[in-house]
Structure formats: structure tokens, C-alpha cells
Specification:
167 residues, mainly alpha, two-stranded parallel sheet, two-stranded antiparallel ribbon, 8 helices, elongated
Amino acid sequence: DKRGMFVAASGGTLFLDEVGEMPLSMQVKLLRALQEESIRPVGSTDSIDVDVRIVAATNRNLEQMVDDETFREDLYYRLAALTLEIPKLDERPEDIPIIASHLLEAISDEVGRSLKLSPEGASLLSRARWPGNVRELENTLRAAAALSQTKTIGERQLAPLINLSTN
């Protein structure tokens, strides 16, 4: 009775995060849905047509996984129509203040108060190491927001939460 993700995304885009973690059994089902442009809900005998654009992300080397036979080659070529490699956050420190400000806007909505990043906070974030990339940055900002009583997230709130080793 419930609409699945493919049905909900029909006519639009479905984002599949960490597609490299998908078990082979699920890869078969995804490939079938992409090839047939239809899905069959669990327990149903009827198929539902879907028109979905897929955007998939992974931090894994899918080509190597294909060679290792842990990722289906046919699914790889179906998903790899356009491939973008995004450098790690550590390799693009100039993007960190922009990403952090965007994340703080979303966090502001969640916590019910307006939050902004101070210039000193932005500078500190840009100098920090981010092995966990954007997810680590987001978690750090969430923690700073939770611990802060002010609207401005700055060096004082961030310093105890981040890896101060510079790039």
C-alpha cells in the first residue's frame, strides 16, 4: 500500500548514496528496475511503470569493484553514463566556508534559531583536516550549534570540536 522510492521519484531524480555498499542481490533488483523502467512492489503481481533519473554517489572505486566482481559490470555501465569526481574536502579548503554556511542554514531550520559562521570560524574550518569530508563538517557544525548559546558559530565553539592539524 505504500509508495516506494522509485514510485515517489517517478518523473524526477532518485539519489542513491553509497551505491558501492549495495549488496549484489540488491544490484540485480536495481538493474532490473533501470532496464525495464518498472518496478513490482513486494507482494504484488502487477508492475508499475517508473520514469526515474538516477544520481548515484560512492567513495569506492567501482571500476576496481567490477574487476573484483563485487559490483555488477552491467549496473556500473548503466550508472556511469556521466561521472564526476569530486575532490576531498581537504583538497578544496576554499569551498569549506561556503559549504559550512549552507549547512548552517539547514541546521538553523532544525534548531529553530538563525545561525551564521563568523569569519574566524570560517578560517579555522578551512585550516582543519576533514577525513570524513562533508559529513564530518556537518556533524561538527551540529555539535557547535548544540553547544552554542549565540547565533554566531566562531572559533571558540569550533576549536574544541575539530582536528586542528593543518593541511
